Amino acid sequence: MKSNNMSLILLSLFFFVIPFAFARLQVGFYSTSCPQVESIVRQVVKQRFGRDKSITAALLRMHFHDCFVKGCDASILIDSTSEKESEKTAGPNLTVRGYEFIDEIKKRLETACPSTVSCADIITLATRDAVALSGGPNYNVPTGRLDGLISDPSKVNLPGPSSSVSEAVQIFNSKGMTLNDMVTLLGAHTVGVAHCNFFEDRLSSSNGGKTDPTMDPSLDAKLVKLCGSSSNPNPSTFLDQGTGNVFDNQFFNQILSKKGVLQIDQELAVDRSSVRIVSNFARNGAAFQKSFADAMIKLGNLQDGSDGEIRKNCRVFN
């Protein structure tokens, strides 16, 4: 009898795990198990956005940095321990923020639907909602992701602020994404900021008074003054110098006018392979918005096929 009970327990666990492990992403994945998931996420995002519009840029960065390692599996949310470091300690992730906000959403969802909604899906849904609130596209997000079982800082390989277009596109291609996807997703820099340490090497103050020929002299002068401020050791500036809190296509007009803050951003408007895409998005805001929605769905679908889990706490493995 004891053996039969054990068999039933193992069989029950098997059927509990399998539907998740082999589930395909689909719009409305939680329609039965947690039908209120999207409304809960949207409500919490709206509350935060009302007092902190910078949350859009924070979530976009978190989502991108998560998906570009082992797929969108919330591995970036895992805290390091005394025995093992997590992705949070990798150089590119040291300035990622918004973890406590994901915790807040997770807490609400655990109350409504315990052990049902993955942290990976929370990041994806929250990012979509924040983009829409900032003026960007509102698109349907497939859900059904699992939370990963590995968080390894050595696996973090992301395009850097000084990358060339060719270097960056190689990394995107390795993830099955195209040059158009890359230009589109870098258009997320229409919101958010960069700190001086990410672009100071481009400024005349770091080059013997010589202005970078790809940077507008007035922007150089503005940034030299900003970064030379003694009151703040590492101040920041909007990546889109025109409409930094609005998700629009003005970022592309800015870089065509040599007002890209980061080297990689400005390179998009200089490199022959990408300038036509930049020019199209600068002229046609609707084309950018549609391309962005498509690219975000494609980014969100990145998976490595590994097994996973639904974490109770987004910061630790179950």
Automatic annotation (TrEMBL):
<feature type="binding site">
    <location>
        <position position="248"/>
    </location>
    <ligand>
        <name>Ca(2+) 2</name>
    </ligand>
</feature>
<feature type="signal peptide">
    <location>
        <begin position="1"/>
        <end position="23"/>
    </location>
</feature>
<feature type="disulfide bond">
    <location>
        <begin position="67"/>
        <end position="72"/>
    </location>
</feature>
<comment type="function">
    <text>Removal of H(2)O(2), oxidation of toxic reductants, biosynthesis and degradation of lignin, suberization, auxin catabolism, response to environmental stresses such as wounding, pathogen attack and oxidative stress. These functions might be dependent on each isozyme/isoform in each plant tissue.</text>
</comment>
<keyword id="KW-0575">Peroxidase</keyword>
<dbReference type="GO" id="GO:0006979">
    <property type="term" value="P:response to oxidative stress"/>
</dbReference>
<feature type="binding site">
    <location>
        <position position="73"/>
    </location>
    <ligand>
        <name>Ca(2+) 1</name>
    </ligand>
</feature>
<feature type="binding site">
    <location>
        <position position="69"/>
    </location>
    <ligand>
        <name>Ca(2+) 1</name>
    </ligand>
</feature>
<keyword id="KW-0376">Hydrogen peroxide</keyword>
<feature type="disulfide bond">
    <location>
        <begin position="34"/>
        <end position="113"/>
    </location>
</feature>
<feature type="binding site">
    <location>
        <position position="75"/>
    </location>
    <ligand>
        <name>Ca(2+) 1</name>
    </ligand>
</feature>
<feature type="binding site">
    <location>
        <position position="159"/>
    </location>
    <ligand>
        <name>substrate</name>
    </ligand>
</feature>
<keyword id="KW-0732">Signal</keyword>
<feature type="disulfide bond">
    <location>
        <begin position="196"/>
        <end position="227"/>
    </location>
</feature>
<dbReference type="InterPro" id="IPR002016">
    <property type="entry name" value="Haem_peroxidase"/>
</dbReference>
<protein>
    <recommendedName>
        <fullName>Peroxidase</fullName>
        <ecNumber>1.11.1.7</ecNumber>
    </recommendedName>
</protein>
<keyword id="KW-0408">Iron</keyword>
<keyword id="KW-0479">Metal-binding</keyword>
<dbReference type="InterPro" id="IPR019793">
    <property type="entry name" value="Peroxidases_heam-ligand_BS"/>
</dbReference>
<keyword id="KW-0106">Calcium</keyword>
<dbReference type="GO" id="GO:0140825">
    <property type="term" value="F:lactoperoxidase activity"/>
</dbReference>
<dbReference type="InterPro" id="IPR010255">
    <property type="entry name" value="Haem_peroxidase_sf"/>
</dbReference>
<keyword id="KW-0964">Secreted</keyword>
<keyword id="KW-0560">Oxidoreductase</keyword>
<dbReference type="InterPro" id="IPR033905">
    <property type="entry name" value="Secretory_peroxidase"/>
</dbReference>
<keyword id="KW-1015">Disulfide bond</keyword>
<feature type="binding site">
    <location>
        <position position="71"/>
    </location>
    <ligand>
        <name>Ca(2+) 1</name>
    </ligand>
</feature>
<dbReference type="Pfam" id="PF00141">
    <property type="entry name" value="peroxidase"/>
</dbReference>
<keyword id="KW-0349">Heme</keyword>
<dbReference type="InterPro" id="IPR000823">
    <property type="entry name" value="Peroxidase_pln"/>
</dbReference>
<dbReference type="GO" id="GO:0005576">
    <property type="term" value="C:extracellular region"/>
</dbReference>
<feature type="site" description="Transition state stabilizer">
    <location>
        <position position="61"/>
    </location>
</feature>
<comment type="similarity">
    <text>Belongs to the peroxidase family. Ascorbate peroxidase subfamily.</text>
</comment>
<feature type="active site" description="Proton acceptor">
    <location>
        <position position="65"/>
    </location>
</feature>
<feature type="disulfide bond">
    <location>
        <begin position="119"/>
        <end position="314"/>
    </location>
</feature>
<feature type="binding site">
    <location>
        <position position="190"/>
    </location>
    <ligand>
        <name>Ca(2+) 2</name>
    </ligand>
</feature>
<feature type="binding site" description="axial binding residue">
    <location>
        <position position="189"/>
    </location>
    <ligand>
        <name>heme b</name>
    </ligand>
</feature>
<feature type="domain" description="Plant heme peroxidase family profile">
    <location>
        <begin position="24"/>
        <end position="318"/>
    </location>
</feature>
<dbReference type="InterPro" id="IPR019794">
    <property type="entry name" value="Peroxidases_AS"/>
</dbReference>
<comment type="similarity">
    <text>Belongs to the peroxidase family. Classical plant (class III) peroxidase subfamily.</text>
</comment>
<dbReference type="GO" id="GO:0042744">
    <property type="term" value="P:hydrogen peroxide catabolic process"/>
</dbReference>
<feature type="binding site">
    <location>
        <position position="66"/>
    </location>
    <ligand>
        <name>Ca(2+) 1</name>
    </ligand>
</feature>
